[in-house]
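The methods section describes the discrete structure representation at length, but only in general terms. What matters is that the chain and its backbone geometry are given together, residue for residue. For illustration, here is how one protein appears when written out as sequence plus structure tokens:
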Amino acid sequence: MATVKADGSAKLELDGMRRKRAYTRRVFSRSVREIEESKDFDKMTVEFQYLVEKLNELKGFDSQIKDLTINSCTDEQFEEEFDECESYLRKFYLVKAKVEKFGMQNDKANASG
């Protein structure tokens, strides 16, 4: 009986973390869109700093969720989870490159103008 309760509480904990992560992913994606659509370097910079915070939150949730699921899912499910986590990291680095490139272009324009 105690095992069922432990499994149930672990499932509740996992479900709660997944909900928090889903919300954080939505906020992360919204931030990515804001940066991609922005032409204002200051706004991009502020939004990027916020994105860094959200990425760190995502990494924490991802790590906890992986720890809770590694022994209770198939290899295929774990790989799918891992790939999804990695996709957010790739998005982050693409946006980071865009912000850096925009910043260099902005610096050149300010230097020549």
Q: What stands out?
A: Residues 1-6 have pLDDT under 50 and may be disordered. DSSP finds three helices and no strands in the chain. Helices lie at 2-37, 41-69, 75-112.
